[in-house]
Amino acid sequence: MSYSKIVATGSFLPKKKLSNTDLEKIFDTSDEWIRTRTGIEQRHIVEDGQSTSDLAYFAALDAIEKSSYDKNDINLIIVATTTPDKIFPSVACAVQRKLGIKNIPAFDVQAVCSGFIYALTTADSFIKSGMYQKILVIGADCMSTITDYTDRSNAILWGDGAGAIILEASEEPGIIKSIINSNGEYEDLLHVPRKPKDNKPNTIEMQGNAVFKIAVNTLDQIVDETLQGTGFSKGDIDWLVPHQANIRILQATAKKLDMTMDKVIVTINKHGNTSAASIPLALNEGITSGRIKKNEIILMEAFGGGFTWGSSLIKV
Ligand code: UT7
């Protein structure tokens, strides 16, 4: 049986930054409130004319350059996104075009903030089945394009960016265990309506406090569920690489793992919540900064709209 292993990571963040002080000029808020309640100091925001596939393409190039691969070695592209350039074609097809790769499949996965874990799990299954050997997996989102900047309760959270990995067939794991799950009953707590009222643009509507509580409880349970049957225990985990939704959610998960925050890769202060991009961005930062080292054990976990959630226990 074949396993899969991450062999390269990459990232891309748009140049333009939106600080808490910038937001103070848009609505009634304060840098102090945002830092205390979310851990966010700034986010990166796309320029006019820049789209999700641009971010995804640059993150993919970064990962390909860091690997030993020619782009034509890749035999599948999966992009996790909630903010595609167009309703169709997919961002994955746009990335394929921009990379100039022909005759391979490319498709998007939509599981909002859990999207990267869903895409990784899908790619891992394809490799385990023997169908593909080298898969480009990208998480990319332009959340600023679906943010209502008159709604201070959630406009403070979102940012734009992309992270990419190359997953390769391997004799050893790699991906030790992944979980994906969903519950469609809570749609109204976090969604973007297709036909919003009063001809307003399609923007995120969230009951933040309710989402927060369910996220913390769910992520609490997922830790035990992920470790079950793997032979690994909490103490074996070197790094937590979580979806960056709110620093208080990260702290709660770290506490559940009996982990100090210096073992958690935190990017929310600089990136905000970049939805499907947040885990691969954090993973790339952990690896390129030299903090995450070869053969270390990492737990990645995410919770998001749907509700969807997921986790991956991996050896880098
Ligand atoms: O990644 C996908 C999943 N998403 C999440 O996990 C997001 C989870 N939710 C959250 O991160 C938090 O709920 C928020 C950051 C969105 C909000 O924080 P909160 O601590 O839950 O605030 P709240 O909505 O309960 O509001 C508390 C108070 C309210 O004032 P009163 O009624 O107590 O006087 C709000 O009006 O804070 C006020 N408030 C603000 N004040 C200054 C809400 N937003 C702001 C703001 N600046 N931006």
Fill in the CATH topology of the largest domain.
Peroxisomal Thiolase, Chain A, domain 1
Q: What would the principal axes of the Cα set say about the shape? A: globular
Count of helical regions? 10
State Rg.
Answer: 18 Å
Tally of strands: 13
For the record, the count of structural domains works out to 2
What spatial order of strands do you see in the largest sheet? 1-7-6-4-5
Indicate the mean pLDDT: 96
Structural class: alpha/beta
**Proportion of residues in helical segments:** 25-40%
CATH architecture grouping of the largest domain: 3-Layer(aba) Sandwich
Provide the CATH superfamily of the largest domain.
Thiolase/Chalcone synthase
Give the ordered list of helices and strands.
EEHHEHEHEHEHEEEEHEHHHEE
CATH class of the largest domain: Alpha Beta
Which molecules are bound in this entry? oxa(dethia)-CoA
Largest sheet: 5 strands, mixed
Taken as a percent bin, the fraction of beta residues is 15-25%
Low-confidence stretches: none
Distance between the termini: 19 Å
GO molecular function: 3-oxoacyl-[acyl-carrier-protein] synthase activity; beta-ketoacyl-acyl-carrier-protein synthase III activity
Family: Belongs to the thiolase-like superfamily. FabH family.
Domain Beta-ketoacyl-[acyl-carrier-protein] synthase III C-terminal: 228-315
Main location: cytoplasm
